[in-house]
Design goal:
There is one protein chain. The protein contains five helices and seven strands; from the N terminus they run ααβαββββαββα. About 35% of the residues lie in helices and about 10% in strands. It is globular and about 50 Å long. Helix 2 crosses helix 5. The strands form two sheets. Strands 1-2-5-7 form a four-stranded antiparallel β-sheet, covered by helices on one side. A three-stranded mixed β-sheet has the order 4-3-6.
């Protein structure tokens, strides 16, 4: 074969090579999109797990504080001062605010840089707690398959014989509402997120349900994470420490 013949290139081979190159570039681009999407999803799952772990540690720290001091702590002074408020709680609203992370010696923010919220029954912030008279006041609801609210902790009326929770600690999640560690309130970027709005201003009744970004579901978009302090666990630890009458 002459050198001229070898230099000739089949146009079909050129088109085939170009097509393979385009397919390769498209595949790489699609893979990058998938990796990015799954990567972001994985990061959010990790942040959620870390936040749940912080909530669990906060709950345990609250019980430990009560075992030593004979009472639960009051909320923090502010979003930037994590010491327990020195003023007694006048009512449920005054006993709802931010977790006193400095006093408890725990992390005071979730994985999205928002301060953890905390609401405690006023009677449980004064020592000694009168077990035979103090009624825990925190109620927690979820939504069933039909979107109807039902109680998972407590009931409409909290009583000694039908106990509610003495306190709750929660994160307001990645999106919508909450307060940054710098003390800046985050705007509500959603519509119809009634359950999140309810938690933002709640003092006794809270919502705990699976996360959703769908504005059409009952209660709207939701990504709050909440842990209620078990009353029996609190009493058992305090009784073991002999700080419960």
């Amino acid at each position: 074969m002459s050198s001229v013949a070898r230099a000739r290139v089949d146009p079909r081979r050129q088109r085939g090579a170009a097509l393979l190159l385009l397919l390769a570039v498209a595949s790489v681009g699609f893979a990058a999109v998938l990796i990015g999407a799954f990567g972001r999803s994985g990061v959010e799952r990790l942040r959620e797990q870390r936040t749940l772990a912080r909530l669990a540690l906060a709950s345990d720290a609250l019980v430990g504080f009560a075992a030593v001091n004979g009472r639960l702590p009051r909320p923090a002074i502010s979003a930037t001062d994590g010491r327990e408020s020195p003023a007694p709680c006048a009512d449920e609203a005054a006993c709802s605010g931010f977790l006193p992370w400095v006093t408890l010696g725990v992390e005071g923010a979730d994985s999205w840089g928002k301060r953890l919220r905390y609401s405690v029954t006023p009677l449980y912030t004064t020592a000694p707690i009168q077990r035979i008279a103090a009624v825990a006041t925190k109620r927690v609801q979820t939504r069933d398959g039909n979107g109807e609210l039902r109680y998972v902790i407590g009931q409409e009326r909290c009583e000694l014989a039908a106990a509610c929770a003495p306190a709750v600690v929660y994160s307001q999640g990645r999106a919508n509402l909450g307060t940054s560690v710098a003390g800046l309130a985050q705007a509500n970027g959603a519509r119809g997120n009634l359950d999140e709005i309810g938690n933002d201003s709640a003092t006794t009744g809270f919502i705990q349900r699976p996360a959703s970004a769908d504005p059409g579901v009952p209660g709207g978009p939701f990504d709050d994470l909440l842990v209620a302090l078990p009353l029996e666990t609190l009493y058992e630890r305090m009784a073991a420490a002999r700080t419960l009458p």
